[in-house]
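Record type: monomer structure entry
Structure origin: computed from sequence
Chain ID: A
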Amino acid sequence: MEDRSPESVPLVAGPADVSSEEALPEPPAPRLNQTRTGIKPKALPEAEADLADPSLYFNRELSHLQFNMRVLEQALDESHPLLNRLMFLLIFSSNLDEFFEIRVAGLKHRVALGDDSTGIDGRSPQSVLGEISQIAHEQIERQYRILNEALLPALEERGLRFRRRSDWTEAQRAWVRDYFDEEIMPVISPIGLDPSHPFPRLVNKSLNFIVQLEGKDAFGREGGLAILPAPRSLPRVIALPAELCEEGFSEAVFLSSMIHAHAEELFPGMRVRGCYQFRLTRNADMTVDPEEVSDLASALRGELLARRYGSGVRLEVVDTCPDELADFLLREFALSEQDLYRVNGPVNLTRMMALLGDLDRPELFYRPFSPGLPKNFKKEGSLFDAIAAGDILLHHPFQAFSPVEELLAEAARDPSVLAIKQTLYRTGADSPIVTSLVEAARGGKEVTVVIELRARFDEADNLALASRLQEAGAIVIYGVMAYKTHAKMMHIVRREKGRLRYYVHLGTGNYHSKTAKLYTDYSLLTADEALCEDVHQVFQQLSGMGRARHIETLLHAPFTLHEGMVAMIDREAEHARKGRRAHLIIKCNSLTEPKLIQALYRASRAGVECDLIIRGMCCLRPGIPGVSENIRVRSIIGRFLEHTRVFYFQNHGKAEVWASSADFMSRNMFHRVETCFPLRDRKLAARVRKDLETYLVDNCQSWRLQPDGSYVKQTPGDAAPISAQETLLYAYAAKA
């Protein structure tokens, strides 16, 4: 890792980060996360303003960047344990990689096609790309300053050190040389650049070096440039043996430092004038034309290979790289200066995540906890009996995901179970869910699995799962070609006392035991006849053909979910117009769909108190007189990833609570198969409302969206500190 660091980027964003032309005056706050989001100076709208006015909407991509900035901010939050702070910084890198691979790549593709059309915010793709570049450069520079000036020194104080080449001891240098000779040299392939060795195709996000050479090689060729691709099979951070570490320290070195230190050995007889890290991020979006595909699985296998070599969208180079080499790389990848990011450290920070799993320093992580179980859940006896006695609601990760897995495992073994139907979106390669489905199919039960092969970045795993299930005898279908199946449903048919009875699981998250420990989600286990029949009808619709089926209690996309949500928001507005108290709470990951935003604007105008808990993208502009002064938007960023989609409507004393697999986005409402289910048990509905109210009083991990598009971190001040996640953890997790 290089020693140089940028001089001008503050670790903590402050009021100076806000454009004076675009910012609305706000009271000072201890910590601000503010950046421009596309609102142009304009007089505030009148009471009857056009709700399609672009000034009422934030740009989606810039709002997405704001979310990533809030994640980065956690790396400075000392209420998190030190290694969790490092993890947040690495998650920022991972999030930004995907942002460039998908969102920036999409904008660049539109520009290349000459598509200058604007979104609801009125911004053209070219203008958004320019602002993304400006913000991303600032935040990436800030990220490396946080790493170098805050986290690495703090880790060293706690006995964890990343050794720079300049700081290696003689014994460490000898060990690194042996490691290079034994582990790196046999698998690394230097590529000289000349007419017979053109610039190689480099894999997306791979670590590479560009090397300047002097002298002549064995064939008499004059030195010039060479490319060193770092072997992908090797770890990016290597722990030093304990006997080589300073007493009281665990120490590690970066693979990039090892390669840099011994680059000259790869070019014997020549002098290495310079060796510089770089990494190319490519377009990783996958498109499959439904009119040209006869076999989705085969088409996706081809697309997965192509994804590794999509067009370039971002070039990262170490900040010591000379301008002429950076310019050479930009030309090779057909990129411009605004696509170049100079970094003060490793160019592939995300790969440091692997090290965290190997560190035996529990005191530097959050303390582990045991997820709880609801009071009406019985560890002994049949889960079917427990569900038949009443609905069971689980709030992950505070409560265990294991009952969902145990229900399916019991169904696989139970001779009274005749059929199982299941949707799988993101599941995991070693999923207990899949193991139970395989067991059920091999046991002769009718097993039908709807696998969404196009779940982004999980396509390869899902193709493997599909093959495994098919080999076991399950019926595997890939949903509907033009609509991703994003609904989370399990349907079990069981013979009881001479008749068939249905049992169902509906959830807001995936059937993934690992993410169930990290993401907040709801799971409903029910034998409610109306809900179970509706889930049966949705599965029939997915596996067969025909007109849309009659669904009694569920809302489901792409048919009734959008109009149902708009109708419930409008119903709340009508209550307010009649002088009744009206209140709604919407909690989801993203809010970008224009008609839903306009329904919320209408509700605010009517006097409805609207509390929105939107973790990520939010295109709605709150606090605008005559339009959205009754709307409050907050984002919760904490130990767990907020993932629940749940909606509360006061409805003049006849409150309704709904949970869903869908966000308030166009893709969820119109281009995916989604479910939204009511909590028909009043006690469970009241419990969810109480959970939502806990988020509304959070003053530790809550960020409030301002009318100018900035987010302000909420602080307790003189009040008692309240963390929603800690409160729920205390309320629901198993007590030691």
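Annotation 1: The CA atoms of residues 258 and 464 lie 36 Å apart.
Annotation 2: The first strand starts at residue 32 and ends at 33.
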